[in-house]
C-alpha cells in the first residue's frame, strides 16, 4: 500500500467511510474526512478516534483499505 492509494480513498467524492488495516491486523476506522490528516511528507497519517484521542500511523504499516460496514446504510424502499 502506498500513500497515493490512501489519498485516493481519502479524497473520493462523495466520501465513503473506510477502515485502515495494519500489518498486525488492527483495523482503524475513518468515519469522516475531517477525522484524518496527513503529515506534509505523506509518510504518517493521523486518525482521530470517536472516543477521543489521535492514532498516529506509519503509511508503510498499512496493508489494506476496507469499506466500512458501519458507514453504509441500507436504502429505504420507495413506495
From the spread of the alpha carbons, the general shape counts as globular
> Helix share of residues?
10-25%
Number of helices: 1
Uncertain ranges: none
- What integer is the average pLDDT? 86
Largest sheet: 3 strands, antiparallel
**Structural class by SSE content:** mainly beta
- What distance separates the N and C termini? 44 Å
Q: Rg from C-alpha positions?
A: 13 Å
Side by side, the strands of the main sheet go 2-1-6
Secondary structure tally: strands: 6
The proportion of strand residues reads 35-45%
Following the backbone from N to C, one meets helices and strands in this order, namely HEEEEEE
Structure write-up:
- The chain has 79 residues and is mainly beta.
- Helices cover 10% and strands 35% of the residues.
- The chain contains one helix and six strands, in the order H-E-E-E-E-E-E.
- The protein has one helix at residues 3-10, and strands at 18-22, 27-30, 36-38, 44-48, 54-58, 62-67.
- Strands 2-1-6 form a three-stranded antiparallel sheet, with no helix packed on it.
- A hairpin with a 5-residue loop joins strand 4 (44-48) and strand 5 (54-58).
- It is globular.
Amino acid at each position: 500500500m502506498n500513500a497515493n492509494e490512501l489519498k485516493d480513498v481519502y479524497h473520493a467524492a462523495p466520501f465513503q467511510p473506510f477502515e485502515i488495516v495494519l500489518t498486525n491486523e488492527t483495523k482503524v476506522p475513518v468515519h469522516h474526512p475531517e477525522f484524518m490528516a496527513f503529515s506534509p511528507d505523506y509518510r504518517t497519517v493521523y486518525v482521530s478516534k470517536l472516543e477521543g484521542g489521535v492514532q498516529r500511523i506509519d503509511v508503510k504499516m498499512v496493508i489494506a483499505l476496507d469499506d466500512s460496514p458501519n458507514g453504509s446504510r441500507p436504502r429505504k424502499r420507495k413506495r
